[in-house]
Amino acid sequence: MITYWWVPAAVAVIAWAASELVVRRLARKASAERMALELVPSRRFDPGLEEIFRRGVQLARASTSMPWWAPRRTKAVQIRLRADGSSPLRYRIEGPAGGERLLSITPFGPSVTVNRARPLSDQPRDHMVRAEFVLRGKPTAPLRDVPLDPDPLQPLIDAVSDLRAELGDLAEIRLDIQRAPKWALRARRLQLMSDARRRERREAQRAARWVRQDATGIEDSLAWQLQQLVSGKQHAGGRRLVMPPVPRRVEPAEALGKLADDDHLVRVQLLVMCASNTEGRAQARLGQLQAALDVFGGSSRWAMRGWQIGPWRFGADRWPSRRSFERRWTWGHCQPPRPNWVRLEELLGLLKPPTVHCRLPLLAGDLPTFEFNNPELLLQGIYRAPDGRRRLVASYAKETLFEVGVGKAGGGKTERALAQAIGWAHAGGGLMFVDPHRDSWPRALPFLAHDALMDRIALVDLNAHGPAPQVSSWNPLGMHQGQVAHEVVEATVDAFASALGWEDASAPRALTILTAALAVLVAVNEAACQAGRPEDQATIFHVRALLTDPDFRAAALAGVQGRLDDETRSWWQTVFPTLPPDSFAVILNPIARLASNPVTRAFLGQPAGRYNIRAAMDSKMIVWVCPGGNGPTDRLITALLARDLLRAVRSRRDTPEAQRVPFRPYFDELITLTGAAAETIASMFEDFRKYKVHVHGMTQLLARLPLQVRLSLVQNASTLASTAGSQSAIAPITAEWGDDPGPDVVATLDRFEHYMTLTVTGRRVGPVRITGPHLDDVFAHYARPRQTAALEHAALAMAGAAPLGQLTASATGQLARVSDFLAQHATTTPSALRLQKGYQ
User: Fold this and answer.
1) Which among 471, 468, 449 is positioned nearest to 460, based on CA atoms?
2) Half-sphere exposure of 110 (CA within 13 A, CB side)
3) Distance CA 495, CA 644 (A)
4) Rounded-to-integer distance, Cα 92 and Cα 95, Å
């Protein structure tokens, strides 16, 4: 029999090979029925220890949801942590199809969205490294207890934060969880107890040996012999009896450690793969992940399987381990070479997606890279990646509905807005930049001085600087541009009410008188335009003549008799004659202030002004408006312009939504603008989205804005940004971010640095730290300083600007022209002539 030993050996090998072949076929069949779920946490996901532990219990239970014939290697649930450039770290769960219902409902509640995941397919990379991690150290000792704040996944996310998708970088960690086999666990416990008892016996024997040696040494010593002579005690009976120490009883809990109890004990397998199309990056990534896993190490730790011989490492990347690694990686089989037994409490950091305590990197897929002359992108700033790379980032124009920038003066708010506006203008977009102080215009001028833009830029400047100032013109009551009469009246009255604080309860008479007066003047203008004489239209300054000059009033009312509704005609016939003269002062005083300023008189006193914001929107114009200050007169001008913008935007209802051209108003110094038109600005942030008009606002202090503006602005902001400032001023913004970062962090930002949240593909990104773009750096190739004079001349011409003296003289003689038109209109209309005599 001994001679033919090879026969039973061969039979055993053949039987093992056949059984292994059958098991592998069954395992592949069972693995083909696996399902995958992807967990997407919310930004405020903050689970407790009990919730995570319950999730681990679910995973362990789901690992057994396999058919009875499935081999043990397939009875596992796999956690896949994957980074490929599409997200900082994708968190997937793969396991038996029978466990899908159990795994779909998580103890995390609505803070985590569970989606059915599609199979992942990777393109081949040029360089790939593989590694398997096993538990080393004391087998009964637990891994390090890693706290949940900061997130235990933070080291892993930091390790893949500099991943570059364009280089083919890929990193993936797979953790398989399987219930521990009872028979293997019992065998391991017997072995550990035997080892513990054997160690205890050896320790007792070693201690006894040392005790005997110490006793013998003492009795043979000179000091001991002298002591015996002095005391007179001579013991001739030989050496004294020495009792050796008894072996200590081995406690199972102490000897077995974490293996003492069966509850929540699982076997795990940890596989890692890194790939790249650039040599060396995959190997470096593996080293980063290895360092990240060291965070979990204590008396027991994760160590890479294999051995190092000089510059070569023999592990999962080389024979004979590579084939086994590939099979387990492809089919999801759990066959760790070592027991790798851990308790669920040791894996809490890996049993959940990233939490609110995790700092996620900003990838190209999270925030797109800005491209010059691309109308779909809106420049936001410069992002510095963890590896030091800087790139221009943008948001999608169609999703950037409203923007708010807050911070101290000189922090970079206006510079960032100018860079965004210039990029949008060169991409073919239309915009309006309202700057009460005019500083933005000379700053942007060199970068807009292009031949392709000159016929699209208009400058409305009411600062009237220089020896020969030129001013544009606008008639808020003009009807030569096809406006709707009642909308013009309503917009002008609302502008006066907003700037002067009129309300129905506090100033009903002023509102009524001004409404009736404007209705008559707008009707006069409508008649003049229909007669082909737009140069004879009335302006806002003719309200005084209408209220105080009986001859002009009679001529105006007679000339528009057929254009007024019955209620307005009745008011002029019955109510107006009963009004005392002093009731007109509240209306005439602000108009008198406008008339006393030569600039505002020239701007508003022309019959057919060139300013037409509705036409500018539809033709993608670039309009720069500089109202000229923040005094009472300037606030009234600002209110008129703001209300006209609101009217013009709402008039886009006559255009199908698909044909509305996007337009972007930029409001610098919102405190100044809202002081004149608070309700109007608030309505813009509430209504403009419907008409494809997107407002960008900048302010130093959010708290100084009127309440209605502040609420509408923060509620609807697609982008919320803050530069440095006092903590009290920044606190309302950081409160919207959950004080992460807090006001103390934002307050210490350097100049041009911002924290901001953005909306990208329907979700919020940030708060992320962004460096504001500097025009001289980002748009240096756009600068044309030699063409600035030509651009300013063309922009004034596009706005219909003329010398201030010429416009002032024209405004002074406009009353006579309107009176002549009304007289001529009356001679051609006999009924009007009769009515005119009746009013007189």
Assistant:
1) 471
2) 0
3) 8
4) 10
Q: What are 92's strand-pairing partners?
A: 38, 80
Provide the token pair at 413. 């708010």
Cα–Cα distance for residue pair 330/615, rounded to 1 Å? 62
At 162-206, the pLDDT tens digits run 888 888 899 999 999 998 888 888 888 888 888 888 888 887 778
Quick: pLDDT tens for 303-318.
Answer: 988 887 777 777 888 8
CA-to-CA distance for 697 and 719, rounded, in angstroms? 10
793 forms beta bridges with: none
pTM of the model: 0.79
What value does the CA radius of gyration of the chain take, rounded to a whole number of Å? 42
β-bridge mates for residue 266, sequence order: 179, 342
Residues 6+ away with beta carbon under 8 Å from 668: 414, 417, 433, 434, 435, 436, 437, 440, 698
Beta-carbon neighbour count of residue 779 at 10 Å? 21
Rounded Cα gap, residues 754 and 764, in angstroms: 16
The 10s digit of each residue's pLDDT in 670-727 is 887 777 778 888 888 888 888 999 989 888 888 888 888 888 888 888 888 999 888 8
Residues facing residue 451 across a β-bridge: none
Tell me how far apart the alpha carbons of residues 781 and 771 are, in angstroms, rounded to a whole number.
20
831 falls in which pLDDT band (50, 70, 90)? very low
In which residue are the tokens 């509704």 written? 565
Q: What are phi and psi of 528, to 5 degrees?
A: -65, -40
